[in-house]
Amino acid sequence: MSGYRVLESSELSKLRDPMRDFGLDVLVGLSEKPKKLDSRYFYDEEGSRLFQSIMNCEDYYPTDSEREILENHGRSILANCASGPLNVIDLGAGDGAKTKILLSAAVQMGIDCRYVPIDISEAAVAGVTANIGAEFPGIEVDGLVCEYTDGLNWLSYQDDDRRNLLLFLGSNIGNFDKARARAFLRRQWTSLRDGDYTLIGFDLKKDIEVLLRAYNDRDRLTERFNLNLLTRINRELGGNFRTDAFRHYGTYDVFSGAMVSYLVSLEEQTVEIKSLGRSFHFEEWEPVHTEYSYKYLESDIVDLAGDTGYSIEGTYRDSARGFVDSLWRVDK
Ligand SMILES: C[S@@+](CC[C@H](N)C(=O)[O-])C[C@H]1O[C@@H](n2cnc3c(N)ncnc32)[C@H](O)[C@@H]1O
Question: Is the pTM of this model over 0.85?
Fold first, then answer.
């Protein structure tokens, strides 16, 4: 007898194995030429901790810029989008430190909020859930540990009456190239309902020296953050990378507007990754691409909103005019 059936989504989730996904992505990335590693894997426990230190370091301006925007404009952002109870969904929430500014304004304004931090890093979700739960006892917190797109799938199936405000802060959108950013924002649009809102943090094109300093900070935190990915491969996949045989290099491509990060092999070497049953050869000075961080013109933001089905309800800038939090309304 023969036949077929479509796997239910509940069955699919049981078949998912994050460790296997990590291993497969490393296998594919290191088999390509030029080699690459996906930036989503930066954030193990140590990576999340190092990123918090980066956010607090002087050279990395985006955190202070966005904090200033939320402190100065948090109330008007909320006034623009909250006429009733609100689901605040925080994609790639990290430590949620800036989101707290918005939640605190919401509490002062008497807005009934439910907070949903979504992050691929369990350490980040555990931390932010405990932290916000303790600081704002009136706010219900439901954290989700998953990939962005799984979070958006989850959102599609929510059917309460609250309006959604989807946060995508910290210029997380910059990790996508321009075509993927467009596709992602349209994907986000399909998960939201007519009249929902999204607040997106865009880092703007600016003095190149400022950009280079931010991604090659004097405390070498960004270097440690990048090298930690190799340590993670060693620990979780049985690799034997020597972190002192690689250096971090961050550069700016003026034309595409991307800050691009690499790990560069300082010598000819072969690295074995046991769980993949594979060795990878690196030539001296061979680069491994690790991250993009695309910068925007304000006109790019206007085009992107229009092309993906949103209307812009507010443009909030820091005083140096280097960063924008853009509030978009979903039009269906
Ligand atoms: C640059 S941090 C920004 C954190 C926070 N939004 C802020 O503005 O401070 C990026 C966060 O997104 C998470 N992240 C990165 N890629 C992800 C993905 N593909 N799916 C879910 N979370 C992801 C990381 O774990 C990290 O906590």
Answer: yes
